[in-house]
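Q: Give me the 3D complex with zinc ion.
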Amino acid sequence: MSNSTRACALVAPHSFKVIEIPLPPMGPKDVRVTPQAVGVCGTDFHIADGAGNYNLTPSGEPIPLAQEAQILGHEIVGKVVEIGSAVHDIQVGQSVVLDQGLSCISHYRTDLCEYCSSGASHQCETYTEYGITGLAGGFSEELIVPAINVLETSGARSPSECALTEPLACMLHTTGMLNDARQRYTLKSKDAASRVHTILIMGAGPAGLLMTQVLRGALGFEGTLLVSEPNPYKRTLVASFGAEVWDANEPGIEDWIQEKSDGRMLEWAFEASGAGPAFASMPRLLRKQATVIKYGIGHQGQGLELLNDFHWKEPTFLMPVGASSPFDQDGRATYYRQALEWIESGKVQVEPLITHRYAGLEQVPQALGDDHKDANYVKGIVEFQV
Ligand SMILES: [Zn+2]
Ligand SMILES: [Zn+2]
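A: Here is the predicted complex, encoded as structure tokens.
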């Protein structure tokens, strides 16, 4: 097999080029994977637009794209085309989902760093990530990755659907943080006074749509689940997953929540819109000592003084990022496995989220272009004929 591969590289902001890149040497515990479907997400747009660069020198300086091009794509499903001599639980020909984060476990260390040993894999002290931190991602014809980072799919769903494993694992990581946090209100409290009755999700993009399904279908939340979203298509979609919806273009959300919560207001508020005005409206909507999950990033136009309005209510603030996970017995990421299982069983429906499809390396520039600014854009997937 070849020690180089074709890839679509980001060589400057908004500028892509198909080039030949070297592959790392294939180790005995590695597998060689050919991407079948790669999801596009906000982080990719951020990097492609030149707004973010996570390929850093050891001292934390970004390495310019002109010096090191980035192959994007970190939500990866691929077919195994070769296995290392010490790989016994993955077969050639299998379709696998990749945990794109390299942790202590990925390097087969026995002495784990404090983050890996406590189940925060994507906070690993030596963390690197395919498609983001300089390592080539899924917009390439081949990747060589540790076998312990891949999970086989059952074949029940298409590779494109399975490519939503990573975004769903991000939601599982969020629920993990919610379980671990000291909070006044929890989902399963036996005492009605400290139980979560009303949750608001701001934004019905992929995160909001997945979180709605996790709360309803997977965690069995039967209380009032509210979603505010400006786009009618996304409102219809999230309503079909069991949420009551509010048009975020309209004033009056405070009254609506008053009414829906019988005056209690929100015990949990999940910010997944990244919109400054949405976040600024949140303090008024909270019950005292509520939990705020700031998942969205952005919130342009809001100063830090906004936090003063939260302060008086003494909320628990959580800021989950990525798909950090504990590890199963076999060393694979618990949350990726769980997420894949939920997608394959239909507990979480991801097909309706896929609004844009692109074909192969040649359409990567289009996938990372302006389509995501369409009002009805939810999720784009680059699909490969393998
Ligand atoms: Zn992502
Ligand atoms: Zn580690």
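A quick observation: The chain has a mean pLDDT of 96.
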